[in-house]
Design a protein that fits this description.
This protein is of the alpha+beta class. 21% of the residues lie in helices and 27% in strands. It has one domain. Strands 1, 2, 3, 4 and 5 form a five-stranded mixed beta sheet that branches.
Length: 90
């Protein structure tokens, strides 16, 4: 199921609003996989988009092996890699 432009905008708004629970994501966007992780887990992969608190990766699971893709029309899911929270000095 390709991710259309309007759906990508809804996904980004959901994530920027603090939505990161897999169950909430799957309820709102059925048919798309959702994988949360830490940004350190991504081993140099290039994100589809970056935000202050997280990076967004698109996953293509249509073939034998799952891979990352820059193309929303090939995406079957997303990975959200949260950046470490900065601690205040004080």
């Amino acid at each position: 199921m390709p991710i259309e432009d309007s759906e990508m905008q809804q996904i980004e708004e959901f994530l920027q609003g603090g939505g990161e629970r897999a169950a909430d994501f799957r309820q709102r966007f059925p048919g798309l996989s959702f994988t949360p992780c830490s940004s350190g887990d991504m081993n140099g992969e290039r994100p589809f988009r970056s935000y202050p608190d997280f990076d967004l990766y698109l996953v293509d699971g249509r073939g034998h092996c799952v891979s990352f893709t820059p193309d929303p029309t090939s995406a079957t899911g997303i990975v959200v890699a949260r950046h470490p929270r900065k601690r205040s000095a004080g």
